Amino acid sequence: xxxxxxxxxxxxxxxxxxxAQEFRPVYINKSFKDTKFEEFVKTIKQQYGIEIFYKPQWxxxxxxxxTSDSLTLSAILSSALKPSGINFIRRGEKQFFLTGTSDxxxxxxxxxxxxxxxxxxxxxxSVAEKYFKKSSYEKTISKVIIGNxxxxxxSTLSVLSGRISSRKSGEPVIGATVxxxxxxxxxxxxxxxxxxxxxxxxxxxxxxxxxxxxxSASFYIEMLSSGIFNIEMTEKLIDIQEVVVKSDxxxxxxxxxxxxxxxxxxxxxxxxxVLGERDILKIANMMPGVQTVGEGSVGFNVRGSSxxxxxxxxxxxxxxxxxxxxxxxxxxxxxxxxxxxxxxxxFPVEYGGRLASVFEISTRKGNKKEFGARGxxxxxxxxxxxxxxxxxxxxxxxxxxxxxxxxxxxxxxxDPDISNSDASFYDLMAGVHVLNNERSSLQLxxxxxxxxxxxxxxNDYEYENLGASLIYDRNLNNKWKxxxxxxxxxxxxxxxxxxxxxxxxxxxxxVKSQELKFNFSGxxxxxxxxxxxxxxxxxxxxxxxxxxxxxxxxxxxxxxxKENGLEYAFFASxxxxxxxxxxxxxxxxxxxxxxxxxxxxxxxxxxxxxxKENIVDTLTYSSGKxxxxxxxxxxxxxxxxxxxxxxxxxxxxxxxxQYLFMLSNTVSIAPTDxxxxxxxxxxxxxxDQVSLGLYKNFNNAxxxxxxxxxxxxxxxxxxxxxxxxLTSSPDFETLVLQGEQDSYGAEFMIKRNSGxxxxxxxxxxxxxxxxxxxxxxxxxxxxxxxxxxxYDKPHSFNFVGNIKISRRLNFASNIVFNSGRPVTYPTGxxxxxxNQVISYSNRNxxxxxxxxxxxxxxxxxxxxxxxxxxxSSWAFSVYNLTGRKNAYSVYFKNxxxxxxxxxxxxxxxxxxxxxxxxxxxxxxxx
Amino acid sequence: MLLNRKxxxxxxxxxxxxxxxxxxxxxxxxxxxxxxxxxxxxDEAGILPEVRISTTIPLTNSEENSIPEEPGPVNNxxxxxxxxxxxxxxxxxxxxxxxKSIYTLSDSNFRAEPGKSYxxxxxxxxxxxxxxxxxxxxxxxxxxxxxxxxxxxxxxxxETAQGYQFQVxxxxxxxxxxxxxWIPDATYSYTVPYISTYRWNAVIQRLxxxxxxxxxxxxxxxxxxxxxVASTEGLSExxxxxxxxxxxxxxxxxxxxxYSLHVRQFVISGENYKFWNEINKMVYETGGLFERQPYKIxxxxxxxxxxxLGVTGIFEVAGVxxxxxxxxxxxxxxxxxxxxxxxxxxxxxYPLSKLPDGVYIIYYEDTNQKMTSFSGCFECNERGGSxxxxxxxxxx
Lengths: 926, 396
Fold this sequence. Notes:
The complex is a heterodimer of chains A (926) and B (396). Chain A has eight helices and 60 strands. Chain A is mainly beta. Chain A folds into two domains: 10-239, Immunoglobulin-like; 260-494 and 645-662 and 671-920, Maltoporin, Chain A (Beta Barrel), CATH 2.40.170. Chain A has a 22-stranded antiparallel barrel. The two termini of chain A are 34 Å apart. Chain B is built from two helices and 23 strands. By secondary structure, chain B is mainly β. The chains are: A mainly beta (926), B mainly beta (396). At the A-B interface, β26, α8, β53, β54 and β58 of A face α1, β1, β3, β10 and β17 of B.
């Protein structure tokens, strides 16, 4: 294939030569007389395109005088600098560096016991470069010529695209910002590390590349025609000496994304551990707008939405149950995770199917350079991960597993139902990642997690998430990129109830989905960037049957039947840079849902409650036959107006539709809560969200601040009728009602990304209310009066801080404050047959006490020797330092005939844990 | 391999993890005045239908939140019982405050019949409360009572204890599903070990000779609170096997000797069953990690004149059968009944003058020792029981 691009120097960095004579000598055909050094530099740059880098103090009062007009530049510099003892080196064809009084050409470092240098980068760099970094804090900038002149003319715009990968492991760098200096033109790398955007043909510009946890880089680009520019980035080792990070962390200002949080492993590392693990979902919970019902509960409530309105994708595989061990642990092995993105609003068009959020989790792709292993052992869980190249630089395989080896944690809980319980879980992830050539990549990923626990010796719960995805990325030409993904997922839940032998039952249900997705992205035309695609998901739900368990059981098998549905969508978007400062994103996703046979559907008498007694007709549908259809547009619109280079104003409007939802009548998600497809009676929930945000960076983007307000209206929200018994009827329409949800709030965040102290403070004020008010009395919940949702916590404050004492020691702390969640209290007691019975208030009229917690953790890294077989670290942590007995719930119970109130806390004491982690290689291995 | 060594070398410091449950009283909870109606019609001979109307009481704010005030009386209602055969019956107003708003059917010859439907209409303060017609279902027999050994928390924040979880078994020859409610009550025997010869009179500071009636075996009745319901809905047979009734722990006199459990079985409607079952879940099965959303329960009595009036009521029409079974003291776990250790009094550090009035004394003349114990170790009635053997009692 004909190479249509040229890269002059980026890779030269790796093999930098210190000796000037390797380069063509530069003859200066001009003489200088008493010229100031600064002016001399300027002239050389203008006339020869050569840059000379220096520190101002070295050249104070330095004048250039030449006697001949055909001297080499090196000779001129030598004679001018020698008297003051200043040395210089030449790097590349067009760069000269003054090195101060040090002579770098002959120095060498000891090879033994060499420690990892404290700079941003460590290996593969010349001594000169290391020196430069340390002395000047200036970034080295290479010039890159893209494309060729012959191709250039004819089109006014050229597309710059490429892939960003880690220099150390070869893994793609996801979420890196590639941006033209001083403009909003640029892109953020996708899941395969690819980026693409268009610029004017023939233009020269500075390209800034930055990513959290990576050393920022800049390049001078000369854009002759469209072309590919692949970039390797170096992992950053946070250095206590590091004062200035001249990175261009502009993405929160210049990017269109709002209601968006991104966390990568680097950030995860600086967050306190809980029960020995750094749990990504617990970190997400520290973000503004993300709530949980309580400790030890599965699932999240994002901007006032119920937990089933979140889409958890791990490499495109949907995960329906994200908790292990009642939710004390997340179902994602932290070692495997490279980063996650959380969208709370302004959803990309390619995602749909849930109202509230998308958690897009990416795993590590595996080291393509060398074998690696890592693991950890904590008080409850142990993890092990192995990664290795299959073909060096081309293909890698990674396998990670996690298991619990003790359920002692349950035995410690002072509740006979829980302490008489057994629990075990494990999860496995495996991936193969292949870079076919410069243009395409293939990723095969599989995920399996399994939980089993026995509660109070009478109830067994088992559930499994199984999933796999095959993702193919290809750059079709310089303009188009296509991503094809085939995804499979299967969630199985099994429950036996043995409370009473005669009524013991078992039930298994299963939610399966198969998805095919095409996404074409990155077409550039003038200042537009187009994406379009389509996806189709086939849902197969087996609602299972309640069947007798054990020989003594009199339970009659009650089959809840199967459900099938095809959910598909077409989507397209246009990101239009109206001016350098103003960008519009217009997206439309049109989603359709077809509820398919085989199935049996009842008709009910008009204006009567959907109850068995009112069934007037039964319709049977054959396999594949359409029973009911829903469809509708989903708008995704946003604007970004950059007020100045570090401040922007953004707006977005989004509509979402959901065809698969979960039914729950418990306050937090129970392990048996079942999933359900929209059907002819249950309409798909829809939400409209508008949000407005102001973003401002300070101190060269090392301090990011944001304020967002949002308002979200949900329609057709599904709620259980009061007292609905899910075991009694397979006909869901008899158990649920639909209504409206109204959520609004304001989120504020201050985040410090660099320096000795990093972390964030966030405050959220939010409300979320539900109203189920049908025309008939039986169509109302709470008499049709609006009530706060279970997770309506108006005030939420989070502090996450990390202080780096040295590279081997850091302290981290969390401070969390939340308003107590709503609760329904007794407003009276009446007597029935000698029993005190509670008369409850309107739903959720009161609140449980406020929640407050402080955590601390200390992370101690092993030595920093560069050459070592394995590196280890210890994490000591205290969860709930103050031992506050935060209420998980407040409830009332009749004991010996009297009503008594109780408060239950999950962690009522400080919890101290120690965990040990290791990895092959030195401290710097990512 | 190094990695293994390192893993093995890792020391885990065990955290102290516990969930804790403690009593809690909300600071401010409003009180909603509402009326509760409980009406029962059965086919039992000699038991007249009764209606009890009471007001809700507040969940008090005192530290002792478990001791609320008594429910207020509602004595001015006019109540009618209608039968689908066209007959009408009136209820007598509560005769006195002491009867706690219990209205009894006026016609003492009334006996409800299976297959007939009944309805209640209440006129109170200008409003009308009504139930639907409820059919009286034929009673069906209890086959047996049994138990399993179980460990339970006696109080939510307290210790656990072993005990008997009593169970009921029945069958019903009619096609199902059937819905049941059980009202158990218990009688247990206990013995008093000592015969006293004196009692201390603290007023005159003298020991008074005393002669006991001599009964050493006593019987005590125990009302059992709790709501016990079950249904055969979803079962392949119209039988109940092992539906849980009350729990008796190893602490107390209940299981210390012979325990007699008497159960009245009500065959009720599905709607009544749902009412009781929901109350059960919201009053007895609250708390836990997967807490259900509580809500305001309404029964099958509604205020037809003003639907907004906060009325909760249950009108229950049931065919009733009874069953009694005896249970010997458990062999599966030790039972700690009332302890009757003797303490010597009238000694230097425990003079008679410090004793409260009425204390029973055994005087051993040979050693000149005066001994006492818990008064219930001398006389049956001191533990609330009676020395009169109940007619149904079987010694075995």
